[in-house]
Amino acid sequence: MDWSIVFNAVNITALIAWICLIALPRWPALLSAVLYLGVGLLCFVYSVLLISVLGGFIPAGEGGADFTTIEGVRSIFSSDVGVTIGWTHYLAFDLFVGIWIARDADAKFFSRWFQAPILLATFMAGPLGLFIWLIVREPRSRVSGRFS
User: How far apart are the first and last CA of the chain?
Assistant: First the structure.
């Protein structure tokens, strides 16, 4: 199988979802579409690929699928399917976190212009954007008395 097709498809899916999340109005239907058509689709692709590898239907590197050692994980990521699975995992979780940040920021009345660079950081380097958001949101969360 040509894994670059799947890799490119998940990249395009994530990119479209991120553009919608950052640039378009946050109507409930749009957020639902980003969640279910973006995150949901990425989770579905990830699950199918992971189950296929763990079930032995698709070979995953020379050493098989071993998540318990660094050598085993390196072996998984040495294959195109392993890289595609790992990348899809990152894309799904980063987009999910981005949705949470956007909804949380809207609820705390942060401007969209203020949110944009944080969401972009989350898109490009997930944990970095999340870390920035956790620091930025803290004072406003304390004032409101809500940490959700």
Answer: 44
Amino acid at 37: L
Look at residue 58 in the predicted model and tell me its pLDDT.
Answer: 73
Rg (CA), the chain: 18
> Structural domain boundaries of the chain?
3-141
Q: Which residues contact 137 (CB under 8 A, 6 or more apart)?
A: 104, 105, 108, 110
pLDDT tens digit string along 34-77? 999 999 999 999 999 988 887 777 766 665 666 788 887 888 78
Count CA atoms within 13 Å of residue 74 on its CB side. Answer: 3
CA nearest to 17, candidates 34, 31, 30, 35: 34
Residue numbers of the chain with a pLDDT score lower than 50:
none
Phi-psi region of 60 (alpha: psi -120 to 50; beta: other; left: phi over 0): beta
CB-based burial, 109-143: b 16+ in 10 Å, e otherwise: ebeeeebeebbebbbeebeebbebbeebbeeeeee
